[in-house]
Design a protein that fits this description.
Elements lengths: L6 H13 L6 H17 L8 H12 L2 H14 L5 H13 L3 H10 L5 H13 L3 H10 L5 H13 L3 H15 L8 H14 L2 H13 L6 H13 L3 H10 L5 H13 L3 H13 L6 H14 L2 H13 L7 H13 L3 H10 L6 H14 L2 H14 L4 H13 L3 H13 L9 E6 L2 E6 L8 H16 L1
Antiparallel strand pairs: 1-2
Helix pairs in contact: 1-2, 1-3, 2-3, 3-4, 3-5, 4-5, 5-6, 5-7, 6-7, 7-8, 7-9, 8-9, 9-10, 9-11, 10-11, 11-12, 11-13, 13-14, 13-15, 14-15, 15-16, 15-17, 16-17, 17-18, 17-19, 18-19, 19-20, 19-21, 20-21, 21-22, 21-23, 22-23, 23-24
Keywords: Repeat
GO biological process, one term: RNA modification
Pfam families: E_motif, PPR, PPR_2
Length: about 475
């Protein structure tokens, strides 16, 4: 017990409490750090530039922005606002609390910044959906390090802008020749994810070779990313070969393999994979069961779908979430079990969302259940009156039933409400290792002459 602790001791203890990781006890430990901070003032000990980053780190981990703003005022009071470490800590706090304007203002006011400052801003924008703002900062940034590149490549891939993610990786490759920055396994995993989204198997194969050529460690994350890439790009056999050769397989690896089988309609293989997973002693998670239920839906395995839904709750104590119910409704409605689908929806402990009702609508559309389909479609239109898809589905149901007047009235309603598909249909194709994109009603990166040649070639093959 130190009778008269000095500032250095207080800083050590505040840092210790603010950094402790004990699950639900994080908030309790941070409270102890705040108590120590208050004790300092009672003993006339003035905080220094090391005290505030520790306190702000605690606020960030607890997402306690109110306390953080009080500490911000203390920072100003004691004259540490221009300290780069304090400034970086404040930016991290405001970004974690989704206060982007506060973080941006702090960034603009900082007299001295470093790579951590810029990275904190870029990562913060990415995590809060500000992809364009993140890209703007990234382009203005000097001295980017591997964290910067990995953050922007991963952020774009996860934000649905996989093509830009791939383009940035190629830009990074040009710089890596000068050893400014070299891709690591995090970069490769993110780019493999982008390839999977784009179906760019040539890029994915090149990355697979790049791993070998550069002796980059192929851990379970990288191996799983390879399985996912090959599977999403259509080469199920190669995906399975890599999966079988993996020395270690965690729940994510098993789940990805199951999801690949589900994507391609191999329901029985997904089922067998699950049994292997159980024999290996790996505990499935809620995502695993989404993959399994999806596999059953695509393969028409109703009994196995019911079994998985039961096992999830009874054996693994995983309470079904809304996406599990949506999968189960999809299984039942595809099998024309509409009464059972409705009973399941009514039994849900949460309010069914558009995906649950959409699964039921899909079954009605598939099997021509006009009465129920009309009721479900009108309910979905009520939930999302500006979603064009539900109007189109209803028109299709009417048309298949020969109710052309009703279909016409529905189309007129769309015109009255000015509802149209604002996102044109878009396709991507990989030609000689380059991903080309073209859309309905939009300009195409693929020259029209080449597109016509491809289509004519396919037409001739089909005639043969």
């Amino acid at each position: 017990m130190i009778k008269n602790p000095e500032l250095r001791v207080y800083n050590i203890m505040i840092r210790a409490y603010a950094s402790m990781e004990e699950g639900d006890g994080i908030g309790t430990h941070f409270c102890k750090a705040l108590v120590l901070y208050k004790q300092m003032f009672c003993k006339n000990i003035v905080p220094n530039c090391l005290t505030f980053p520790f306190l702000l780190k605690g606020c960030t981990r607890c997402l306690d922005c109110a306390t953080g703003q009080v500490i911000h005022a203390q920072v100003i009071k004691f004259g540490f606002l221009n300290d780069v470490f304090v400034g970086n800590s404040l930016i991290s706090l405001y970004m974690a609390c989704a206060l982007l304007n506060n973080a941006s203002k702090m960034f603009d006011e900082m007299l001295l910044t470093d790579v951590v400052t810029w990275n904190s801003m870029v990562i913060g924008y990415l995590r809060n959906g500000g992809l364009d703002m993140a890209m703007d900062l990234f382009r203005k940034m000097n001295g980017r390090n591997i964290i910067t590149w990995n953050s922007i490549i991963t952020g774009l891939a996860q934000g649905g802008r996989a093509k830009e993610s791939l383009e940035l990786f190629h830009e990074m490759q040009l710089l890596s020749d000068d050893m400014v920055v070299k891709p690591d396994k995090i970069t490769i995993a993110s780019v493999l994810s982008a390839c999977a989204q784009l179906g760019a198997i040539d890029h994915g194969k090149w990355l697979h070779g790049y791993l070998r050529r550069n002796s980059i460690e192929r851990d379970v994350v990288i191996e799983t990313a390879l399985v996912n890439m090959y599977g999403k790009c259509g080469d199920v056999q190669k995906a399975y070969e890599i999966f079988k050769e993996m020395p270690e397989k965690d729940a994510s690896a098993w789940t990805v393999m199951i999801s690949v089988f589900a994507l391609h309609g191999f329901g029985q293989k997904a089922f067998n994979c699950f049994l292997e997973m159980e024999r290996a002693g790996v505990r499935p998670n809620h995502v695993t069961f989404v993959g399994l239920l999806s596999a059953c839906a695509h393969s028409g395995l109703v009994e196995q779908g019911r079994w998985f839904f039961d096992v999830m709750k009874r054996v693994y104590s995983i309470e079904p979430q809304v996406h599990h119910y949506a999968c189960m409704v999809d299984i039942l409605s595809r099998a024309r079990l509409f009464d059972e689908s409705e009973i399941l929806i009514r039994s849900m402990p949460m309010k069914p969302d558009v995906y649950v009702w959409g699964a039921l609508l899909g079954g009605c559309q598939m099997h021509g259940n006009v009465e129920l389909g009309e009721k479900v479609a009108l309910h979905l239109i009520e939930l999302e009156p500006h979603n064009h898809a539900f109007y189109v589905n209803l028109c299709d149901i009417y048309a298949k039933a020969g109710r052309f007047d009703a279909a016409r009235r529905n189309r007129n309603l769309m015109k009255e409400r000015r509802i149209e598909n604002k996102i044109p249909g878009c396709s991507m194709i990989e030609i000689n290792g380059e991903v080309q994109e073209f859309s309905v009603g939009g300009s195409s990166e693929l020259p029209m002459k080449e597109l016509v040649l491809v289509l004519n070639g396919l037409s001739n093959e089909m005639k043969i």
